[in-house]
Amino acid sequence: MKPARAHARAHWRAHVNAAPAMRIWLMDQASLTLKLRARCQVFRVRCLHQWRAPCLADEAGALGLPRRRHAWEREVLLECDGAPVVFAHTVTPLEANADDWPQFSTLGERSLGSILFGDPLVRQGALQLARLAPQHPLAQRALAALRLHAPHLAAQLAGAQLYARRCLYRRKHGVLLVTEVFFPWLLQLPQPRPTRPQGRMG
C-alpha cells in the first residue's frame, strides 16, 4: 500500500529532466492556448466536467488550504485537429466567487486562458514541474479521458510517465491552481503558422 500512496503524489519542482523540445513547452509562461492555436488548423477545448470535488492530496497546500477538502474543479482536453494533446485540471477553493474569477463558472468549452491572460488583475505564480507516475490521479484521469475520446491514442500511454506543470494564479482574494498534463505526441505538432504582429493577447 505504501508505494501506491507514494505514487498518488507528485514531486513538484522548479526543474525537471526532460528532452529540450519538451522543456520548451513546460517552461513557456505565455498562453498555452495561443501556442497550440498556432500549430493547428482547428483548436478545441473539450470540457469533461466542471463541478465540486475533493482536491487532490498534493493540491491542498498549494491552494493554502489546511487540509484536503472540496473545491471547484474543471477538467478539459485541449485538442489540435481532433487529437487531444493536453489534459488540463483546474481547482479553486469553494470560497471563490464571480468577483474573484469572472466568467469561470460559465466557461463551458472556452479556454481558461481567456480569463487569465490579458486581465491586469491576474498575477501568475512560478511554474512547478513534475513527471507523473501512471498511478497518479491526474495521469489516470488523462488516460481515462483518452480512452473515451481518442482510444487509438490511449494505448500509447500504457505504463508511461507523463510530464506536467502547474501554476497558481491570483486575482483579488481568489486563487486558482492550473495543472496541465502533456501527451508525448504534442512534440509532433508542426511549427507555428506565420502570423501578423499583434499586441498583447490572452
Q: Would you give an account of this structure?
A:
With 202 residues, the protein is an alpha+beta fold. The protein has one domain (2-184): 3-Layer(aba) Sandwich (Chorismate lyase). 22% of the residues lie in helices and 30% in strands. The chain is built from 7 helices and 7 strands. Strands 1, 2, 3, 4, 5, 6 and 7 form a 7-stranded antiparallel β-sheet that branches. The longest helix has 13 residues, at 137-149. It starts with a helix and ends in a 20-residue tail after the last strand. The model is unreliable at 197-202 (pLDDT under 50).
List the helices and strands and how they pair.
Layout: H1 2-7, H2 20-27, H3 32-37, E1 43-54, H4 60-63, E2 70-80, E3 83-93, H5 113-116, E4 123-124, E5 128-132, H6 137-149, H7 151-154, E6 162-171, E7 174-182
Antiparallel strand pairs: 1-2, 2-3, 3-7, 4-6, 5-6, 6-7
Task: Describe, in short, the structure shown.
This protein has about 200 residues and is α+β, with helices and mostly antiparallel strands. The protein contains seven helices and seven strands, in the order H-H-H-E-H-E-E-H-E-E-H-H-E-E.
